Amino acid sequence: MDEQLTVPDPVLGVVPGPHRDFRMPSVVEEHTRAWLLTPPAERTVPDPRPSSTVMLLRDGSGGPEVFVLRRASSMAFAPGMVAFPGGGVDPRDADPDVPWAGPRPTEWARRLGADEAVARELVIAAAREVFEECGVLLAGPSDREVVADLGDPSWETERQRLLDRRQSLGELLTRRGLVLRSDLLSLRAHWRTPVCEPRRYDTRFFAARLPQGQRALHLTTEAERVDWAVPDELLAAQTEGTEILLPPTQVMVEELALVEDLDAWLAAAPSAVPAVQPWPVEHDGALWMRCPLGPEEG
């Protein structure tokens, strides 16, 4: 960890206490430096958009494997970087009539530190995004079952109807006689995009085991490729410079690299998930993302 520093800036505020610094990815260095050189009173800080992302997991020969996407270089946000399936909350996710199993939105509100309506949207967005982006459906005909076979072509039709907004996830589940299995999601982290980014997200990170019988596929145009990755190998690829992970992705992968029993880890979700807000700083002639750490991590 670096020496303790603060950032005395009227927009950035002061970032005291324990922290961890991550090198700024080269693809965002130019606009970050321009933002830092802008007089504080003239800087633009967009409001972050609520979003959900899901670490899909399965058991591998040496421990858990995580499904990752390498974002297309044409993407406006995080081009070329390794990410998990996910995206922003959509107006359709506000549907109060989604068939629901598992912890109720009131319980998710407590876990997420949000009001009930926002909590419902974040959980629904998580389930919708993994179905849209990789064809995995966290739903079943009852609170003890999950859809095991999505090979029928009609499921691809359902996915396309979600993508072009002809239906909501709630409408799909209701018509199919299914319930959203919110108990399959485990809340793991909460990160906000740095203030220097032109697109910002207020993102909850969930984890879920790949349902038995289902397959995660390369279905999104937002990714150049997808893969089941071994956490240690993914971290080594970042060190070698062949992959780029943003700080929240790196921290999550580092945590996964320590997991020995996937089911036990999923069950032992943290009781509180404070938001982490990285800040852009420059020291030692380079740009960094400075991430405050909670007391238990410092």
Automatic annotation (TrEMBL):
Residues 47-252 form the Nudix hydrolase domain. The lineage of its organism: Bacteria, Bacillati, Actinomycetota, Actinomycetes, Micrococcales. The keyword Transcription regulation does not apply. Its cofactor is Mn(2+); Mg(2+). Keywords: Hydrolase, Magnesium, Manganese, Metal-binding. CDD domains: NUDIX_AcylCoAdiphos_Nudt19. This is Nudix hydrolase domain-containing protein. It comes from the Bacteria.
